[in-house]
Amino acid sequence: MPFVPAHPPLAAGLVFLNSPLAIVIVVSLVVGLLMVLLFGYTSNQKAIKVAKDQLKAHLLAVRLYQDQLPVVLRTYGRIIRGTGRYVRLAFMPLLYVIIPITLLVVQLDRYLGSMPIEPAQPFLVKVQTGPDALSEVSLRLPPELAISAPAVHVPADNEVVWRVVAQKDGEYNIDVAAGGKTFSKKVVVSSDVSRLSAERLRDRFWERIFVSGEPALPDSSPIESIAVTYLPRNISFVWLDWNWIVLFFVLSMIAGFIFKEVLGIEI
Fold this sequence. Notes:
Layout: H1 8-17, H2 20-42, H3 45-64, H4 69-112, E1 114-115, E2 123-129, E3 138-140, E4 145-154, E5 159-166, E6 170-178, E7 181-189, E8 199-201, H5 205-211, E9 223-228, E10 231-232, E11 234-237, E12 240-243, H6 244-263
Antiparallel strand pairs: 1-10, 2-5, 2-9, 3-6, 4-5, 6-7, 8-9, 11-12
């Protein structure tokens, strides 16, 4: 009896979810379509078309009357006013597009910006604290993780650094003790695409939005930050290594311009 793989659609889905390039391509196409539709829905398409046609006419006039200085100067003034009119018409629709894309990029960066730690791959745990607690900080690890070198104290940065090695895949909580209290930090060891949080921070609300996917450390904590050094991820595409955000913006812009032409939306 021939062997039949179980649940081939499920297997294909798992392969897709573990391919950063496939994720970036699909998300870029979807975002390119959505941002064109959102811009078209929230903008005054007729006024934008008129503004663009006027700008084209003024640019053509500069070429036609380039030997008549007064006409050229007046036309340049009209070009400046027309550009301002176009920017005013496009500003709010662009804002409606940029805000959700920024929030999406922040969330996707948790998965695509860095690679999880692999078994037997050394990584660093960095703890920043106040000068009074620097000598009191200690690191407690689960059995699957082990310290591979003595702690290094960096008084100039109020920082303690440990080199750690993981034995097998998994999601673990490491504990940092200081001032009689214990604070945890998540560590992911895996070869798959996973949600990562490089740092756990105290206060620093805006920084936490962009770099941390974990709850803030308590305000009373002597610890200011606990960081794990995940390696940055590069994605190979058309013979180049790309940061995923750069590749995402390039592909989504290309997709946006294609969908713009197909749907007849003025941008």
